[in-house]
Amino acid sequence: MDAFFIDTKFYHLKMTKLSSEQLLNISQQFGTPLYVYNAEQITAQYKKLTTAFAETDTKFFYACKALTNINILKHIKSIGCNVDCSAINEVKLALMAGFEPANILYTSNGIHFSEIEEAQSLGVNINIDSLSNLEKFGEKYGHSYPVGIRLRPNIMAGGNLKISTGHDKSKFGIPADQLDQVLELVNKYQLFIQNLHIHTGSDIKDVAIFVKGIEVLFDIIPHFKELSSIDLGGGFKVPYKKGDAETDIPLLAQKVKEAFDNHPNPNGKHLQVWFEPGKFLVSEAGYLIAEVNVIKETTATTFVGLNTGFNHLIRPMFYDAYHQIDNISNPNGYVKEYSIVGNICETDTFAWDRPMAEIREGDLLVFYNAGAYGFEMSSNFNSRLKPAEVMVKEGKTTLIRKKDTLEDLIRNQVI
């Protein structure tokens, strides 16, 4: 079993990844395709954050759009993390998982105002991302309910344009250059602005991007006298393959502390820093196991057809994302190049000409870093069934979602 130790003055943690033998045993018990999540790895990732930011007043909200299985949410709550929601049903799932409303953050994005009204009725923290909904909120609630504003800082960042959210052509947030219009609404309705939020994108490895976002906020903070927090979003990069960079969390914590030490709030009020890690917490904890259906030799390549496809893991097709794939049935086999493909009636290629230990029909392959936006973005395309999910925690493997059945495909159809 792979393992490493993190030694700091705050804690001593042994973090383990699931071994090939464990994954094989789990797949024999539950079948394939199968999603497997390691709870201990989620805990370890969270402790990385809390340890690094121990000297800063920081609050972390798990961006649950990455993975919303209620058992994962319950584990997130059990380790002391809060939760960030992008839709009202995520808020309801968080409440079902036991989160207190004060520990739930709801950041709206182009939604009907009725959804914001529902979030307000549930008592959660709210961020608003448009002038239109900010005005509606002011008309209805005035100063009676604290609210946050999501600003677009006009900063290009992230590993892919599709996951960059802070640039000047992004739909997210109110452009920072519309601050005068924001202030006009705040003054007109005496809005109680408690939080300023920015989020520049995902897969951000350069700590300077977060610092640049802070600098944008420092110019805006003096306009909001009741501000109690600033939200720097998430987007921490995790490594998907050997040699990949990852966000230097201790350096980020240091730079955030330095920035606030050098820029005290002119309003004299202490500001708490919020972050919204999603992928960072659950990506490396997740594995997708699939079986080899067929080997197809061609003059161009050797195709390996699996019993899964982009209906279960769309990231490689959607984002050109890389996932390490290993043959756990024959790990010491002679290395050859294979093109790994799915069983969907569309082009669903996971990897082209990837060097791997010899693959045979019936072998089991594992996709690593499959915890974030794997099952969460899955579908029933081609009327294929969604896979089961299991969680490994304290040495025990538990089924946390059943595999779909044919009845699930027609459940809501009206015949």
Share of β-strand residues: 25-35%
Structural class: alpha/beta
Under CATH at level 1, the class of the largest domain stands as Alpha Beta
Q: How many angstroms does the end-to-end distance come to?
A: 51 Å
Mind summarizing the main beta sheet?
9 strands, mixed
CATH architectural group of the largest domain: Alpha-Beta Barrel
- What spatial form do the alpha-carbon principal axes imply? elongated
Count the domains: 2
Question: What would you say this structure looks like, in words?
Answer:
- With 415 residues, this protein is an alpha/beta fold.
- Helix content is 28%, strand content 25%.
- The strands form 3 sheets. Strands 3, 13, 14, 15, 16, 17, 18, 19 and 20 form a 9-stranded mixed sheet that branches.
- α2 (39-52) packs parallel to α9, α6 packs parallel to α7 (179-189) and α8 packs parallel to α9.
Task: Provide tags for this entry.
TIM Barrel; Lyase, Ornithine Decarboxylase, Chain A, domain 1; disordered N terminus; alpha/beta; 28% helix; 415 residues; 12 helices; 8-stranded parallel barrel; 9-stranded mixed β-sheet
Q: How would the blueprint of this fold be written?
A:
Blueprint: E1 3-7, E2 12-16, H1 20-30, E3 34-38, H2 39-52, E4 58-63, H3 70-78, E5 82-85, H4 88-96, E6 104-107, H5 113-122, E7 125-128, H6 131-141, E8 147-152, E9 174-175, H7 179-189, E10 193-197, H8 207-220, E11 229-231, H9 249-262, E12 272-275, H10 279-282, E13 286-297, E14 302-306, H11 315-319, E15 325-327, E16 335-341, E17 349-357, E18 364-367, E19 388-393, E20 396-401, H12 406-410
Parallel strand pairs: 3-19, 4-5, 4-12, 5-6, 6-7, 7-8, 8-9, 8-10, 10-11, 11-12, 14-16
Antiparallel strand pairs: 1-2, 3-13, 13-14, 13-18, 15-18, 16-17, 19-20
Helix pairs in contact: 2-9, 6-7, 8-9
